[in-house]
Amino acid sequence: MVKLITDVSKYLLIWLAAMYTFWSFRYFNVGDEKRERICRRRLPHLLFLLHFLACGVLFLNTGDWKLPVLYGVQAVFLLCYMSLYGRLYRNRSEILVNNMCMLLCVGFIILARLSFDKAVRQFVIIVFSAAVTMLVPFIMDHTWQLGKIPWLYGFLGLGLLCLVHVSGNTSYGAQLSLTVAGVSVQPSEFVKISFVFFTAAMFYRSTDRRQVFITSAVAALHVLLLVMSKDLGSGLIFFITYVFMIFAATSRWSYLGLGIFSGGLASAAAWTMFSHVRVRVMAWKNPWADIDNRGYQIAQSLFAIGTGGWFGLGLCQGMPGRIPVVEKDFVFAAVSEEMGALFAFCVLLICLGCFLQFMMIACEMQALFYKLIALGLGTMYIVQVFLTAGGATKFIPSTGVTLPLVSYGGSSVLSTFVLFSVMQGLHILKRNQEEEDEYETE
Amino acid sequence: MNMKLNNKGEKKKRNLSCGGESDRSILRLSYGVVFLFFCLMLYMWYFLTVQREDVINNPYNARLDKFSERVERGPLVCGDGTVLARTETDGEGREVRVYPYGSLFDHVAGYSARGKTGLESLANFYLLSSHINPMSQAVAELSGRKNPGDSVVTTLDRELQQAAWDALGDRKGAVVVMEPDTGKLLAVVSKPGFDPNRIEEDWEELVAGEDGQARLLNRAFQGLYPPGSVFKIVMALEYIREHPDDYSRFQFDCDGYFEWGDYRIQCYHGSAHGSQDLSQAFANSCNGAFASMGLEMDLESLERTASQLMFSGGQPLSLPLPYSQSRFDMKAGADEWEILQTAIGQGTTQMTPIHNAVITCAIANRGVVMTPFLIDHVENRAGDMVKTFEPQEWGRLMTEEEADILKTLMMRVVTEGTGSALRTENYTAAGKTGSAQFDTGKESHAWFTGFAPGENPELVVTVVVEEGGSGGRAAAPVARSIFDVYFSR
Prior knowledge:
The complex is a heterodimer. Chain A is mainly alpha-helical. Chain A has two domains: about 1-135 and about 310-365 and about 405-440, no CATH class; about 145-275. Chain A is about 75% helix and about 5% strand. Chain B has a domain at about 220-375 and about 390-485: Beta-lactamase, CATH 3.40.710.10. Chain B starts with a helix and ends with a helix. Chain B is globular. Chain B contains 18 helices and 19 strands.
């Protein structure tokens, strides 16, 4: 009976996710307010239904009474978060809040499946992050000096990265984290934000050659520090983000070309300098040749995705635990294995939807500073999604980055919350502005 | 879903058409990102539709075992309906894997307890997939019954397998029987073997291997033996390549041994062959002739030929079962003793029976190797075809002319030389014998590899009998009895 329910609900879950994805994209495209309201109502319904169904299946399969309790708390949290955001910020982007909750929801489900304890720990961090970042749009609305202090951002970022390089803890061959008062934090997750602010503020001042040169030098220093700590995934994300930002700020193809060229050079250098890089590339080219060691992780990931197929094996029916660090870098494979590749496609599309939303905000903003922040943060986000999904499917070599909001990891989720909140802040800023304008013209 | 994407894109365009230069840049970058995600999804689609089966049908994929919770493992059968393995449910509702022929197909069919080997491992994915019609599948799932797994039809031929098994008798060794023009494996025998029905009961004894029997080792694929005179096939090929126009003028006077400095190479049992040309030396397996030939050879070129023939260093052959890589270690600049030894297939050179069979197939098939395969097709329980495996060309090992010359040499081995056991009026066989010494004071390993009929080869047989003595007397008769069964049908 449990098997039957699991089987049927696996199709239902895919259907719910597909409907959600459909309506979240449809949302952009409807003109009149009435239909927009219908979409808006539909999304949370689908989301809560999906969360309920998946947790029900998990409970039936494990029989663990702690699960319904966790489910209840999580559902209440999502409900509170959505309504509180609405109360505090009338002009928020509702679709972004919904998408964010949907991704959190997928994370809740898959983490509860993988490890109950980790799911609880992650949930606590999410509640904390949600509460703290609730203030970000307010701060942005009331602070005018954000674009004036590039060097503060720059030195903050560089300082943190130096600190990690000097006294960071090493895990999987990379120095990623610092231990502060018993809590392990990954500063590079927060430097992402400060880096985008720094670059935006610098280009906001001027985009003449001298300024571009100085900014590029500092950006290169960021990347270099990351590479020296062997955090190559983050290094790549920073690099691409910088190239995107410089292109948007100057609209000069030569900068884009130069960026791609120097990226190629840097990759070649990394290939010769780091055995770490060679190992990853070899494992990507042919994981089957060394399936016991280097190819093990990627082979297990491919087994997971392949065996799961389009519709998945059903929750608790697969073996995602066989993939090393599945709850972080390979969470995409776990989702695909048990919930189906179609479900994983929906997750990708929702992430892409968030990115497109960010880009729309970027285009709507008038000030270059805000424009660049929106573009930079959006790029940070989507490149990370691309690297983790591409790595798990062997589309590109695995770089060891997490899927934002879905993967396990405190720093990652907090910085993603900050990122989404800043985007909300920009959106709110713009809407408030528009309302004021309308008021004045009347 | 992609349609939605496009809708979205168009909408953005409308929104941004009034934007400035940087908005256009942002739009371009967004299109770039959307394109990348499109590629990623396209790749995932390709992975799931095209590569999926090959990837997940891997012994490392523990997830396949989960399939057995829903599917009853399908049977392994031969083309004539002989059942090699089937799943039965005993009185207590437990599933038992039954092998009706006991140890006849032991290594090649494998076992499915304590891990999986042989065809049970190779065909695992197909055996655990069910392709009966969707209605009955749904009914079975609803009623809690398992679906019947697909039947895997092997290329094996029960009669030939039996003939090989009987002919080898109680001796240790291996036999491989193949179709040279398709690559179908018709029989794979390795002795000593085990009873797959008793794998759980006998496990401790089998893995302890105290008797030194290595019963679990599939000698046909994994046994490495010195090739002895069988290696003269490689030497002859290399000699023909180095002397394309005048190889027939090769001349050697054999008085039972060959002396070079302090070294002395003896012919088998010291028999003196007298004046020998290439063809005679090959037919009589004259060690002296080939040793002297080795001293004159371009060793770099010999190494190239060996690696082209899939000894170590060459492109590995894709085989359906785990196999050992044959070794050829001699480099340019080797000392004379090593050259003399290597030239007659002693020294450090080692090869597997399957490798020998594949080289023989290339000669029989005018230089082209067909990839050896064991699964002919997969059908569902109702007998409808699910998937067929077509013969595939692996590559060319030698030119047609070279293959034809070697074929003629091998035919003369039977008509005039050491392969006399295969002389018969019913068919013309061709081959090469070998007697490989591996330990002083022990009998040599007996080799035979060959094909029949000589004019238009249909069947390749490779035999190795451990400590069997002379190839012509111990191994060739095994091949003879297999050919006899095949050509009397």
